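Intended use. Records like the one below are meant for learning the mapping from a protein sequence to its folded structure. Do not use them to infer anything beyond what is encoded.
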Amino acid sequence: MSPKTMRYPYDPEQSASNLIHRLGRLIRQGAAQYLVDQGAGVTPEQWGLLVKLAASLGATQVSLADPLLKDHANITRMLDGLQRRGLIRRRPNPGDRRSHHIHLTDAGREFVDDLLPGVLEQKARWFEGMNQAQLDQLVELLKLLEANIRDADND
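Structure written out for the chain above:
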């Protein structure tokens, strides 16, 4: 929307960017509360790392950090906590002595397998009233917005 086509007077509370910001906070708060209610003992960010690792055969710390827009020190702290709980293990990367491959342990895989159905049910409740076509369209629009923001930041 160009500045010329914006509604006037502009109401920042009703803007798309403000709504997306509020939804992001609500989703994070809802996810955090769900994990607390389940006694999971992990943050939504740690849960995201575990799910990403469950869907892969392992990852490096760098590959985990960039997509999540997290700094490397924060990822290290999160991984340290998951390793202390026995949910992940680090193995030296034979191709790069400075990095490690990170994998779920059997306990980590079981942890994800136990929690995932409930997490998916929670997300389904959040998207009630939307059909699959609407969800697909929402995802595509959000991807477009993300790409536009990244492109604008690179100018």
